[in-house]
Amino acid sequence: MFDNLTVLFSSPHYTNALPFIWQGMQLTLIVTFVGVFIGFVIGSIFGLMRLSKNKIIYGIATVYIEALRGTPILVQALFLYFGVSEFIGLNFTAIQAGILVIALNAGAYIAEIVRGGVESVDKGQTEAGRSMGMTSTQTMRYIVWPQAFKRMIPPLGNQFIISLKDTSIFAVISLGEMTYLMRQYVSTTGDPFVPYIMLCFGYLIITVPSMIILRRVERRLDV
Amino acid sequence: MITVKDLHKSFGETKVLQGIDAEVAEKEVVCVIGPSGSGKSTFLRCLNMLEEITAGEVEIDGEKLTDPNVDINKLRSRVGMVFQHFNLFPHMTVLDNVSLGPRKVNGVERKQAEKEAQEMLEKVGLGDKAKAYPGSLSGGQKQRVAIARALAMNPKVMLFDEPTSALDPELVGDVLEVMKDLAKEGMTMVVVTHEMGFAREMGDRVIFMDKGVIMEEGKPEDLFDNPQNERTQAFLSKLL
């Protein structure tokens, strides 16, 4: 057993697998960034819909949010990539499907972040805006949203990290991100130990700095 | 300037206002007093539709608030409101707090709006705080900024909802001074207050409310020194 440990220091995989990690990481990051960005737009819209007094608008948002939060992201990916594309005869590329799934999935969680953020702003702020004659849209845009957004930053950062890790399940739809490429590498070499350690570090190298930055931002917002 | 006819307001089953009739003339300062829960704040909030009106009519400056065709935003822009808890915008500087309304509602250019905002701040004695954020101000300063913010819209009427109730006693004076200056300039004011001294000195008329109705109203010297209604007597005697 301890003999095996020497491979930790002298494995040829470090040099051989690194290009795959690097290549996969780029796709992982692209899918995450684009997906979460679109998810933020979706989440903002549905989050505000959740605050509507109109029952239909509220209902639509609630169905979307609960449907996506209540099903596994793996199932959503399979359904969208294989199911929906078959059904409507539209062939998504794996990247398109991956971005779409992250956007829809993160969008549902972000909608709740947005709702919570907006609700946390004191009602008196809205009243002050409206009593000056501002419309509800102006009041939201200039007064409520900037304050709500500040409070949304920490949970949005968390969601970014969660979504980043979620991209690993896109291996099942053959999206060539980090996990998929390393699985392929392992299946050709037949040696899983070191390559999968490298895969872990591939994620940690993004997530740990993200978490550190996030904690700093949180501390600064506290003041 | 303000005419209120048979105003009713309910929150669900709870009837908070049960038929208010009142008039406020131009340049008049009307103080509304009464025990907590009497509906005086709700009454004030109905005057600019921060509370939906259940029944009755409110007319301000010749326009009916209750008319579904009325442009409520336009009407509100002519009615200044000062809140108990200031409700300043914490993410903006004092100057931005004061100039936001004129810019966004009245379409005044930023430079012009900021110049006028600065003048308003000088007027309430806070010209040096323009670049400060509300969080760094004392309660009394916050409330004076809030008054400047309302004044920046050039309102025809100012509504004050217990403007000094959240302040430390030693800070009340500064805010009342600003309000007195305003009254002397001929601003039409409706003030919900617990400051009997202010009501007596500055009020042209005092309204005593209890249980959602106006129990008694009159000149301050009459109402304070010679109250006719039993409840007014009871309320005032508790204050002494």
TrEMBL record, chain A:
Its main location: membrane. Residues 25-217 form the ABC transmembrane type-1 domain. The chain crosses the membrane at residues 20-49, 56-82, 88-111, 160-181, 193-214. It is found in: Cell membrane. It is a multi-pass membrane protein. It comes from the Bacteria. CDD domains: TM_PBP2 (cd06261). Keywords: Amino-acid transport, Cell membrane, Membrane, Transmembrane, Transmembrane helix, Transport. Coiled coil: none annotated. Signal peptide: none annotated. PROSITE patterns: ABC_TM1. GO terms for cellular component: ATP-binding cassette (ABC) transporter complex. The keyword Transmembrane helix applies. GO terms for molecular function: transmembrane transporter activity. GO terms for biological process: amino acid transport. Belongs to the binding-protein-dependent transport system permease family. HisMQ subfamily. This is Nickel transporter. It comes from Alkalicoccus saliphilus. The lineage of its organism: Bacteria, Bacillati, Bacillota, Bacilli, Bacillales.
UniProtKB/TrEMBL annotation, chain B:
Pfam families: ABC_tran (PF00005). Keywords: ATP-binding, Nucleotide-binding, Transport. SMART domains: AAA (SM00382). Residues 2-236 form the ABC transporter domain. GO terms for molecular function: ABC-type amino acid transporter activity; ATP binding; ATP hydrolysis activity. SUPFAM superfamilies: P-loop containing nucleoside triphosphate hydrolases (SSF52540). InterPro entries: AAA+_ATPase, ABC_ATPase_HisP-typ, ABC_transporter-like_ATP-bd, ABC_transporter-like_CS, MetN_ABC_transporter-like, P-loop_NTPase. PANTHER family: AMINO ACID IMPORT ATP-BINDING PROTEIN (PTHR43166), ARGININE TRANSPORT ATP-BINDING PROTEIN ARTM (PTHR43166:SF37). This is Peptide ABC transporter ATP-binding protein. The lineage of its organism: Bacteria, Bacillati, Bacillota, Bacilli, Bacillales.
